[in-house]
Amino acid sequence: MFAVTATSFDAENPLNGLTLGEVAEPVIPEGWVLVDLRAAALNHHDLWSLKGVGLRPEQLPMILGCDGAGVDSEGNEVIVHAVIADPDAGDGDETLDPRRSLLSERFPGTLAQRIAVPRRNLIPKPASLTFEEAACLPTSWLTAYRMLFTRAGLRPGDTVLIQGAGGGVATAAIVLARAAGLRVWATSRSDEKRAKAQELGAHATFATDERLPERVDAVIETVGKATWAQSIRAARPGGVVVVSGATTGDDPSADLTQVFFLQRSVIGSTMGTRGELQRLVSMVDSTGVRPVIDSVRPLSDARSGFADMFGGDHFGKIVFSI
Ligand SMILES: NC(=O)c1ccc[n+]([C@@H]2O[C@H](COP(=O)([O-])OP(=O)(O)OC[C@H]3O[C@@H](n4cnc5c(N)ncnc54)[C@H](OP(=O)(O)O)[C@@H]3O)[C@@H](O)[C@H]2O)c1
Question: Which residue, 16, 70, 104, 280, is the most exposed by fewest CB within 10 angstroms?
């Protein structure tokens, strides 16, 4: 089958290790099922993998991709939950299990014609969503959902600041926060992306590092070093900064005085549970909000999608049809 794999690591030029071509069909362990993928979406995680973050050389070649939607062997239209839990972990929060992995970390990912996954990782795809829209939900959108509603505990009427408005997680957070009745503020480096963020539902947008008119209940942080100082200062006394990524670096000043003096909380977040993915899918289905798609291209053009994400000019999800 055709697949997009990481075949080597390059921290400076991650596309050097990207290989497109024929690979062996998936092996299907007991309790797992085969899914014919119809669409897959790209995440920053795929670039990290090509840089050697989260993968060891002996795991190469590895099929990339966390996000996918397709049809299972019984003909059901499904969305794939990318968190592979330890089979003995029970029904608790699988994201907290230290033995859990994401697709493309230990098991082959979604940038392929077919994938094998545990049966419990399949969520029914509502008919209202296209495969391309559904494929956007399991990583960035699920991460944004958990950050806003589980980890920050935001409620209608609260104000949230979303950093790096053009990102996959950030665009999801803008749309979901607006649909949930929050006051939504977003930052971006680009005027054009700030305008697009307002079209998506942000009530106000600001340049990265611009002084905000007032403090917010929570900050959604995925940019890292470039925005951290603003994020810590933007939270109100007792407010929270929820962080799930650090695209620009993970070693900013911790700004401890800002944390303790105004009693702010810094909360980590990663992906989401199967139950959260089901609630997200239900929310998208019932509210009519849809993933923000930067572009859809065939999987055979995956290299150009990776290049666009590496360049950082995209707005929303880069999707591949399969
Ligand atoms: N923990 C998890 O479960 C999880 C899940 C999903 C993603 N993540 C992580 O979260 C991060 C974002 O992921 P994503 O898929 O949303 O990535 P993405 O689509 O590439 O978005 C990254 C955004 O960061 C902003 N940015 C980049 N460089 C910047 C700079 N120098 N200064 C200010 N802003 C900058 C950009 O926003 P503007 O261009 O609008 O300024 C960009 O759109 C990644 O590091 C990813 O690994 C983690």
Answer: 16
Instruction: Report, as ranges of residue numbers, the positions in the chain whose pLDDT lies below 70.
Output: none
Question: How far apart (Å, rounded) are the C-alpha atoms in residues 240 and 256?
Answer: 14
Query: Does the predicted model carry a pTM greater than 0.85?
Result: yes
Residue nearest to ligand 1 atom 30, measured at CA: 226
For residue 38, the one-letter residue type is R
Give the pocket of ligand 1 (CB within 6 Å): 43-45, 48, 139-140, 143, 164-170, 188-190, 193, 208, 222-223, 226-227, 244-248, 270-271, 309, 312
Cα(74) to ligand 1 centroid in Å equals 37
Domains defined for the chain, CATH in brackets: 2-136+291-321 (3.90.180.10), 140-268 (3.40.50.720)
47-66 per-position pLDDT tens digit: 999 999 999 999 999 999 99
Between the alpha carbon of residue 232 and those of residues 149, 222, 262, the distances in Å are 19, 13, 10
Alpha-carbon span 293 to 315, nearest angstrom: 8
Q: What is the pLDDT of residues 288-303, one digit of tens each?
A: 999 999 999 999 999 9
For residue 172, the model assigns a pLDDT of: 96
- Nearest atom, ligand 1, residue 193 CA: 40
**Distance from Cα 164 to the centre of ligand 1, integer Å:** 7
φ, ψ of residue 94 to 5 degrees: the values are -65, -20
Neighbours of 289 (CB within 10 A): 17
pLDDT, residue 313, reads: 84
- Cβ distance 303 to 318 under 8 Å? no
β-strands 183-188, 159-162: how paired? parallel
Residues in the chain: 322
Show Cβ contacts of residue 59 under 8 Å, excluding neighbours closer than 6 positions: 106
Both tokens of residue 174?
């803008």
Atom number of ligand 1 nearest to Cα 314: 43
- Tens of pLDDT, residue by residue over 229-262, are 999 999 999 999 999 999 999 999 999 999 999 9
